[in-house]
Amino acid sequence: MSKRDGRSLLSTINTVPTSTMVTLGLTSSQAERIIRVRRVLPLMEDRRTPCLDARKLWERIGKPHGRFRDWASQHIKPMMDRADLSAEISALKIPARGTPRIDYTLSRDVAAHLAMQANTVQGEDIRAYFLDMEDLAQRLTVHLGVRVTAIVETDTQVTHMLRKRAGDDARAGRIARGAVCSVAIEREKLLKGVVCEVLTGHTTGYWRESFGRGVRDVLDTDDAKLYAKCYESARAAVESGLVRNPEALRKFLRASYGGRIDPANYRQAA
After folding, report:
1. Which residues form the AntA/AntB antirepressor domain (predicted)?
2. Which among 133, 145, 241, 258 is most buried, taking Cβ atoms within 10 Å?
């Protein structure tokens, strides 16, 4: 992570990949459904502003009533007459031969309501999707709480500690003043590398090569908690002066954390 704000750890419910969903405990079929339906009905902060194409939604839910015009007349037009929903639907007449075509844009809430009303196989898929998304949201909240709150807090402390020490080394003439930042960064990478090797038996490079992501982006919630504890133990040991070199840190951490994360558990999800 280049910034200590947790951005590389954040996966929103609209962008979390299949591999992470499976890691969090969802089934492959749930993950596939979320990816498929999310393109049409993503979760949004502003759920009441018209932004979704009604015609595309109609196609996605199996073209109920056979013709878009008939479906819109039966379901969309009555909603436009309701004071509480009229602002969530916009209509645009498109010139055409004969009767002008009317295109509708729907808010996310209205689109969800219409999709869940559809008596089609695709409509059932939408209903299952919303249950899946609720499940994913709960799992992701817990997972991100561990990764972002605990791990990034330790990141911040480690960065501060190692930059201060590099600054002290520069003032003492042990390193060049212009090398403070680069030395601190390399020391931080080394510390994180030791944590990864102790916990998993592999380097951080192995995780990136094998899974296409950093180790912290691959771990499930329980293993992320374990990583956070090991990482904090490493920080405390270094800061207190209990350990003074990488090998001493490895020996210190192995007693409690050696080999406790098995990469084999993640190969199928990858």
Report:
1. 53-120
2. 133
